[in-house]
Specification:
Number of strands: 9
Distance between the termini: 52 Å
Oligomer: single chain
Order of helices and strands: EHEHEHEEHEEHHEHHEHHHHHH
Structural class: alpha/beta
Largest sheet: 9 strands, mixed
Amino acid sequence: MNSVHVVLCTYNGERFLEEMLRSIVSQTIPPKTVTILDDASTDNTTGIVEKFSEILPLHFHKNQKNSGHRAAFSKALEYARPFVEPGDFIALADQDDIWEPTKNETLLKEIGDAALAFGDAQIIDGDGKKTADSWRAQAHISKVTNIDRQVAGINNVTGMISLFRGELLEKILPIPEGVTVHDRWIAMMALKNGGVKAIDQVVAKYRIHGNNAVGGAATPCMSETLKTAISWNETILANSQRLEMTPGEIAFAKRHLAWSRRKLNCATALRDLPWVFAHRNDLFLKTSAVTRLKQILFSGLGLSLARKLFGKS
């Protein structure tokens, strides 16, 4: 059986971390290594991690200054890299979730020839109470993706419910500074280097408690969303060779960037409506026909006009 290496980043995670670490201990396929990078916590996170040093094959590192989850995961994967041998796999973990005991075993059995496999998750709240049976269903997450959807900011691969081949590290690292979230970058690299496979099984409990770094965080305002989209598209285009993007994918990213800039700086982006309609399945989540129509129509409004009409900020 191929070895699994767990990579986890922590930051002020004392409330839920012990439960997460116990779920790693309980895996039916024990991890070969567990690399943890603490991103300058000020609570008892370090003390909790150290309690597990005798029951987990821990490699614990600490940042002196907080770097953010993208930089932290890039660094943590670098720390894990020397232990990963050909044929091994990597499982990313978040400090506030809970893995099912067979999480890694299930994904190992199902990954086949793909570079990455991901499952579904049950949603729980801060008290551990179930709030939904399926993260995928609640978030309108498709089982399939492509580079254009990733360019548009639609990522269906949540890191903590995935498993990917260790060989992918050579493509992933370093994770560029402009990447919004680490698992989006990893998903794009997997798409280009063996493919991504979705399975239906619930492999974890995804805790949404209001303070999540991603996933459960409040929706940002329109101006911040557009600025993030612009930065993300610029990062993708700057790394198009690393991503082995096709001319069509590059053209899509350039058009998405131009559209985002128009929406941020102009009253309208009406000239983009035909393009938006043609690419609606890649630009928006799969929701109701009414919602989709509203999304398409709103996509023609720039920030200044949206402020006047709807009070957007």
